Each structure stands twice: as structure tokens, then as C-alpha cells.
């Protein structure tokens, strides 16, 4: 019995790091098929293939560290049982952020627009951008090895799709 | 020593190869082949000689001391832990391959209003729009950080003035500037 417990625990050790990523992915999966929602999932390999000619080496290096890009945009007007879906999504994400002790790296308010940037504690995790503005709430999540170079590139606007 | 007839040996050998001999009968066969055997049974001699050698080797080990269970030794524990970790790793690979990995198989997924749309260009274009918007907000942060930096530079520039002021205050306190 003891052996079984140890084996079970050992088998789950590698997944502790991807637990946060899975939680975020689960939330995005939950909302992606809703009405008034735009959801995009792109693998960095596809991005590299799409922009092979224009992409410079630093961008390629950066993309090699990432495993997935996900964007979810919800119209604030869309409601479910009288509650805004954008608000529900925000609540779900806030719960993961506080549960997993994700650190807030940036908070920028520009008029009515608010952008917050969060990072998981582990390097192999996610970088989350939550952008709230009147009429829309957008989540941009970048999964992979989120080391300082990726954070700096994101802050300085170096992560470009095209 | 009791002599065993050729027929008896034949009978015992038949039983031996049918795995129905008793331990006593096997011992009898081993002794028979150890002391010599009839020409007809010469071919079995090496087989029983081998058994005798094994028994002797086992006896020697028993004389050397009681056998310590492997898992109580240090290498035994290491082997046990290695086996445990191997099984854990194998379980992890199986879980990852069949449970977690399939979720990562998509290289592109685009949903608009709950409908799956297979259009790579549209997906990339929409993602590009979102990143452009994000970069534009981050540009404002950079503007802000530049302002902070310029404030910092201004602070550095006026710091010698503070030093002069400090020096003047100290001299005043010491009474050097008062007459």
C-alpha cells in the first residue's frame, strides 16, 4: 500500500509544474465556445512557419521558448443567467491567480482601459495579460518557458505575430 | 551401499523427466550419477553432476553466513528506490501520453461565436490585432518608464546642490560661517 502511494505521488511530481497551465487552459476551454467570444489558439511552430521570411533570429529564439499562445476576447454585453460572461471569466481567472500566487508584473491604466500582466511562479508556466476596456475583456496567455527574456520581450512589445 | 538396478534407474529417470520424483528419489539419482553410471545413462551424467555442483555452491554460501535480504543493504535500498522511481517515471510517461498530451495536439484553433473556423490566415490576423493592441498599451508603459527615468536623471543632476546645502548647514551648525 505504501509503495503504491509513493509511486502515485512520484508519477504526479512532473505535473505539479503544469498544474497552473492546465487550470488556465481549462478556464479558456470553458469559455471559448460561448457566443460573443473570439478564441484563438496558435502554436509557436505555426507562427514560425507563417512568418518564416520576415521573422528575425531574436523572435525565432523567443518563439522557441513558447509552447502555445491563446487569446480569448469576450464582449461585455454577453450575459449568462443575467451575469456578464466577461465578469465570470475574470472571476475564474482571479481565482487561479490568487490560488497559484501568480505575481502581477504590470498594471497600466489608460483612461477606462486597464491592462494587467501576471506571471506564474515557476519559469515553466504562463504569462497572462488581462485587458479590460468598456465593451470587451481580453485574455492573452503565453505558455512555455517564461524566463526574464520572455517577460522583457513582452514588456517591450517584441512579441509580434506578423 | 545399496546397489540400484538398471531398471530402477530407468524408472526413476522416467519419473524425473515427468517431474514426479520425490526429493529422496532425486537425491538417489544424483548419488548414482556421482559415483558412476551405466553406459546407457552416460548422457545424463553431466546434468546430475551440474546439480551436485550447484548444491555444493549453495552449501558453501550457507556456511559463509546467513543470507541478508537485499533490501536491507544500502545497494538494496538504492535498487529499491531506483525501481520505485522507474515505475513512477513510467507512470508519468503513460499519463502524459494518454491524458495530458492529446490536449496539446492543436496547432491552431479558432472559435468565433462558438463556431470553429478553420482559417489560419484569419486566426493569425486576429491574433496580430490583439498583440498590436497589447503592444500599444505597453508602449504607454514605456512612455511612463521613460518619464520616470528622466525624473531620475533630473534627480541625479540636482543631487550636487543637495550636497552643497548639506555642507552649508553643517558649517552653520559648527559656527564657522557665523560672525
Explain what the structure shows.
- The complex is a heterodimer of chains A (162) and B (179).
- Chain A has 162 residues and is of the alpha+beta class.
- In chain A, 42% of the residues lie in helices and 34% in strands.
- Chain A has six helices and eight strands.
- A six-stranded antiparallel sheet of chain A has the order 1-2-8-7-6-5. In chain A, strands 3-4 form a two-stranded antiparallel ribbon.
- The longest helix of chain A is centred in the N-terminal third of the chain and has 15 residues, at 2-16.
- The radius of gyration of chain A is 17 Å and the shape is globular.
- Chain B is mainly alpha-helical and 179 residues long.
- Among the domains of chain B are: 6-71, no CATH class; 125-174.
- Chain B contains five helices and two strands, in the order H-H-H-H-E-E-H.
- A two-stranded antiparallel sheet of chain B has the order 1-2.
- In chain B, helix 2 (23-35) packs across helix 3 (45-64).
- The radius of gyration of chain B is 46 Å and the shape is elongated.
- In chain B, 8% of the residues are buried.
- The mean pLDDT of chain B is 75.
- Chains A and B meet through helix 1, helix 2, strand 1, helix 3 and strand 2 of A and helix 4, strand 1 and helix 5 of B.
Quaternary class: heterodimer
Q: Give the CA-based shape of chain B.
A: elongated
Terminal CA distance of chain B reads: 136 Å
The proportion of strand residues of chain B reads under 5%
Uncertain runs of chain B are none
Describe the structure in brief.
The complex is a heterodimer of chains A (162) and B (179). With 162 residues, chain A is an alpha+beta fold.
Keywords:
heterodimer, A: 162 residues, alpha+beta, globular, B: 179 residues, two-stranded antiparallel sheet
Amino acid at each position: 500500500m505504501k509503495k503504491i502511494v509513493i509511486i502515485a505521488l512520484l508519477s504526479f511530481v512532473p505535473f505539479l509544474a503544469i498544474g497552473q497551465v492546465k487550470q488556465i487552459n481549462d478556464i479558456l476551454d470553458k469559455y471559448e465556445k460561448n457566443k460573443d467570444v473570439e478564441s484563438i489558439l496558435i502554436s509557436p511552430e505555426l507562427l514560425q512557419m507563417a512568418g518564416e521570411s520576415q521573422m528575425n533570429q531574436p523572435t525565432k529564439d523567443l518563439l522557441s521558448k513558447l509552447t502555445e499562445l491563446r487569446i480569448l476576447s469576450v464582449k461585455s454585453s454577453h450575459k449568462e443567467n443575467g451575469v456578464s460572461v466577461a465578469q465570470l471569466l475574470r472571476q475564474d481567472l482571479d481565482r487561479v491567480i490568487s490560488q497559484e500566487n501568480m505575481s502581477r508584473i504590470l498594471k497600466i491604466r489608460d483612461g477606462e482601459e486597464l491592462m494587467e500582466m501576471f506571471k506564474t511562479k515557476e519559469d515553466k508556466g504562463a504569462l497572462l495579460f488581462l485587458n479590460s476596456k468598456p465593451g470587451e475583456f481580453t485574455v492573452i496567455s503565453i505558455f512555455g518557458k517564461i524566463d526574464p527574456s520572455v517577460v522583457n520581450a513582452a514588456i517591450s512589445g517584441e512579441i509580434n505575430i506578423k | 551401499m545399496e546397489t540400484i538396478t538398471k531398471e530402477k534407474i530407468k524408472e526413476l529417470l522416467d519419473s524425473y523427466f515427468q517431474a514426479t520424483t520425490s526429493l529422496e528419489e532425486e537425491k538417489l539419482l544424483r548419488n548414482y550419477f556421482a559415483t558412476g553410471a551405466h553406459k546407457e545413462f552416460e548422457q545424463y551424467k553431466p546434468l546430475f553432476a551440474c546439480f551436485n555442483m550447484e548444491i555444493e555452491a549453495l552449501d558453501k554460501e550457507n556456511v559463509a553466513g546467513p543470507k541478508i535480504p537485499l533490501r536491507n543493504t544500502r545497494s538494496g535500498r538504492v535498487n529499491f528506490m531506483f525501481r520505485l522511481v522507474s515505475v513512477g517515471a513510467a507512470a508519468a510517461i503513460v499519463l502524459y501520453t494518454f491524458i495530458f498530451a492529446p490536449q496539446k495536439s492543436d496547432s491552431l484553433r479558432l472559435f468565433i461565436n462558438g463556431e470553429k473556423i478553420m482559417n489560419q490566415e484569419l486566426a493569425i490576423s486576429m491574433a496580430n490585432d490583439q498583440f498590436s493592441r497589447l503592444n500599444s498599451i505597453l508602449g504607454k508603459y514605456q512612455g511612463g518608464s521613460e518619464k520616470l527615468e528622466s525624473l531620475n536623471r533630473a534627480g541625479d543632476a540636482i543631487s550636487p546642490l543637495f550636497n552643497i546645502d548639506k555642507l552649508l548647514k553643517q558649517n552653520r551648525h559648527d559656527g564657522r560661517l557665523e560672525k
